[in-house]
Amino acid sequence: MRYMIIVKANADSEAGVLPRETLTAAMADYHEQLARAGVLLDAAGLQPSGRGWRIRFDADGRRQVVDGPFPETKELAAAYTLIQVRSREEALEWTRRFPAPFEGAACEIEIRQLFELEDFGPSAAAGRFRDIAPAAAR
């Protein structure tokens, strides 16, 4: 089971303010523990939304590029950690140990389970994804 731990953005992360050394050290310790346990798949901070864009699709499938920044900071992600564990309970235990992402500020992380290819059952399209999926997604 794969889970994504999503750190919600705030005004500082959207302004490009980098975390203090103490938080960077705490995150490094946490991610080292994940890696030693063999559950860490990936982790990274995200650049502010002002450096990104969205692709908006209308009902007919036409695309429109919308450049950032995006106004609803609380709806944005500032960082993520991707883990692979045996159960929801194990994921919950790891996320309870996640360091507070913004020192001295109220914040939250969101945890979401990823779909696995077997969730989609047998189909030609799912088979194509199975053929190209990295080993962790199989």
What would you say about this model in short?
The chain is α+β, with helices and mostly antiparallel strands and 138 residues long. 28% of the residues lie in helices and 26% in strands.
Describe it for me?
The structure is a single chain. This protein has 138 residues and is α+β, with helices and mostly antiparallel strands. It has one domain (2-137): 2-Layer Sandwich (Alpha-Beta Plaits), CATH 3.30.70.1060. It contains 4 helices and 6 strands, in the order βααββββαβα. It has helices at 11-14, 21-36, 88-96, 124-132; strands spanning 2-8, 40-45, 53-57, 63-67, 77-84, 109-113. The strands form 2 sheets. It has a 4-stranded antiparallel beta sheet with strand order 2-5-1-6, with helices on one face. The relative contact order is 0.26. The mean pLDDT is 93.
| Helical content class | 25-40%
Enumerate the strands of the largest sheet in spatial order, edge to edge or round the barrel: 2-5-1-6
Mean model confidence by pLDDT: 93
How would a crystallographer describe the biggest sheet?
A: 4 strands, antiparallel
| Series of secondary-structure elements, N-terminal to C-terminal | EHHEEEEHEH
CATH architecture descriptor text: 2-Layer Sandwich
Give the CA-CA distance, first to last residue.
10 Å
From the spread of the alpha carbons, the general shape counts as: flat
Instruction: Provide the β-strand percentage band.
Output: 25-35%
Structural class: alpha+beta
- What are the segments in which pLDDT stays under 50 over at least 5 consecutive residues? none
CATH superfamily: Dimeric alpha+beta barrel
Reading off the top of the CATH hierarchy, the class is best stated as: Alpha Beta
